[in-house]
Amino acid sequence: MSGKKKSRAERRREARSELPSEAPSSSSARWIVPVVTTVLVLAVIVGVIVSRNRSTHAGVSDELASTQPGQSKPTGDTPAKPKKVTPTIYGYKVIKSYPHNPRHYCQGLVYHEGLLYEGTGHYGESLLGRFDLDTGEPVNLIDLDALYFGEGIAIWEDKIIQLTWKENVAFVYDKKTFKKIGSFKYSGEGWGLTHDGTHLILSDGTPTLRFLDPKSYKVVRRLTVKDRGRSLRNLNELEYINGEIYANIYQTDQIVRISPKDGQVVGWIDLTGLLPAAQRRAHQSEVLNGIAYDVEKKRLLVTGKYWPKLYHIELAERKR
How many CA atoms are closer than 13 Å to the CA of 127, on its beta-carbon side? Predict the structure, then answer.
């Protein structure tokens, strides 16, 4: 090779010029890393905001789509459950007793315009009657056909309505003449009957009371009766008194007071011992059944199946 031989110093300078340029200094690295981290964090935040906006928009759209014209948007709140009521316990004081036919298996009792109306049961013994309260003597009496077991009664306007037990039929009578003027069918058994001034109220031994339209006799409402959260069965003869439904509990000497708004039992009336044991044995009397109320004189009247007496009582609250 021609040319001048390079010195050792020159060869070193050339070698250095071929090396890659030096890495950034440590001071440069210090500001680059935070900048990159900040950019990444901002990107994440922006992504979350966009995602939430899309989700919210979709939710609002779905809600609006599911809301029909004329309807308000659902709030998502569930109806509050009624609070459990601790019922008041009542005893009684006998004000007066009246005669009652011990052959009458009382199933329905009503006091109306100074006279006592009673419907009785058992096949071949069932009847509907109007009686003088003081003497117990009948003013009007009609017998049901032996095919029917009479049950609860109610007076609606100028009519008397009487249920039957398992025959799924109620009979309608003219209040003045006691002439049968109609009938209607219903499902299940018939036990007690009363009214609240707007609807007939029917019991059938279950915890459910049925409210019937008094013209069509169709069921318009059902009410489940509960005592401190538990359903109460064997609701029998009924009477509507001062905004509450009074009901005999079959096979007991107890009456419950029921709120017609929510079905909760607000009171228990203990009538144990009302008919003395000796009279029960003498007449083979059965349990308490029959509630009537004299609106004018504010008298609560009660009797039972095959009882020889009907009682005017006053309630006395018992201390717990």
Answer: 15
